[in-house]
Amino acid sequence: MQSDEMDQMRPEQPTLSHPKIPVPVPAPKRLRERAVFFGLLTLLVVGLMAAAAATGWQETLHQIAKLSAWQILVLLGLSLLNYGLRGLRWHLFASHLGLQLSLLTNMRHFLGGFAMTVTPGRVGELVRMRWIRRETGWPVDRTAPLVLVDRASDLAAMAIVMGAAMLLSGTHISGGVPVIILALIAAFIVTRPRLLAWVAQKGHAITGRLPRIFARVRRAARSLEPFAAGGTLFQGSVLALFGWLAEGTAFYLLLHWMGADVSATTAIAIFIFSTLAGGLTGAPGGVGGAEAAMIALLALQNVPLALSLPATAIIRLTTLWFAIVIGLIIFPIAERVSKRVQNELENP
Asked: Domain locations in the chain?
């Protein structure tokens, strides 16, 4: 079926005089999502405590006590470098899309969205679109490509870092190669508007079903056109690459300081793979999946549980949970500023 025919299959919608506003999530669904997350978090904490108890609390606390205050600051600093580089990438993409927002504003949106990292599939991070709509009047449909290209850039960067680390270290991670290939393919397709539109057209032609979904994919492909020129995607992926490399390096330094005999490239490969594996589980923030993968892969490197357990807990605290804390601090500021700007625009 031709592209015009696919787009015409959508029923006519009445023209609205105001931007589209996302439908609020019903309260029961929000409660269910929160219950699932806190259930996963509880299971994770119980599992970590049980594993720590099996190795001996004293040994676990001893490993944690090896770290000094300056070492913790180094770990947090490398995480901040990651967030800063990816925030700069968000500003790059937003500017290329045509949003006339300052670097400070885009950084506020990006970092404030971290507060919603623990929502299932991280869909809560779409709150950034709401802030942009309030401050610019742009509807969510018009700014949604930012999320798509941001995720695709992360996939590409993480796949490249992990692939290079595995190649240099000679480390074999079961399932690592397929994950790298899938991440690169997904990132390549999503960041190639014409290819994405072709996939949607062929997908509908083969299945003969879901015309509305394939039509939406085609529209998303057209909305990604602004990012396909000028090397914007390449620049954004380079920023993300160095950002994720910084967090992988933090994991290596942590293991080194705690006495684990693991090379830098191996540690980086384990960290990136575990982060991707946690994301594939669909659990909020990858909670549970990332930790399990990290501990299992460290065990294959002959790192004892008494060391891998506290190392995993600390690196997750200084990466995922540190980002969430930053988000929780900035979130109310972003809400307040966006409402103020909206009022100024509506009542000049």
From this structure: 75-143+241-343
